[in-house]
Amino acid sequence: FKSSKMGGISVIAAANSAVALFGRSLALEISPIRVNVVAPGLLEDSSIWSSQGESERADLTKWATTALPVEHLGQPEEFAQAVLGLITNPYITGVVLPMDGGVTLL
Question: Is residue 96 part of a domain?
Fold first, then answer.
């Protein structure tokens, strides 16, 4: 995973970092209104699937089951549970929650 070339990754990284910092800064500026950020990874039900052929989908699924610490692609229900936790807990604010199956650990 780390050694493969990934075109455009610097732009994605910059945008993701900006959104994370914006969320944390906004949480300070508008408190007591809470602001949290969810940083999603690959979601099995996302638009990435519609742009991929069967072979690419199989490769991505295989990669997820062998490389990710959780051994699967994210499911919509898993994302929903995390977001529900963030919005229902009044003591959480300024958090950036990585929902990436552990890819940030690699």
Answer: yes
For 1-106, where are the E strands, in sequence order? 37-40, 96-99
- The pLDDT, as a whole number, for residue 99 is 93
Residues with Cβ < 8 Å from 94, sequence gap 6 or more? 23, 24, 27, 28, 35, 36
The one-letter code for the residue type at 31 is S
pTM, two decimals, is 0.78
| pLDDT averages per 10-residue partition of the chain, 106 residues | 64 91 98 96 76 84 91 93 96 96 89
Question: What SS3 state is found at 74?
Answer: strand
Residue 60 CB partners (closer than 8 Å, separation 6+): 42, 48, 52, 73
Residue 16 lies in a domain: yes
Domain with 27 in it: 9-101
CA-closest candidate to residue 66, choices 97, 106, 38, 12? 106
Residue 86 domain-assigned? yes
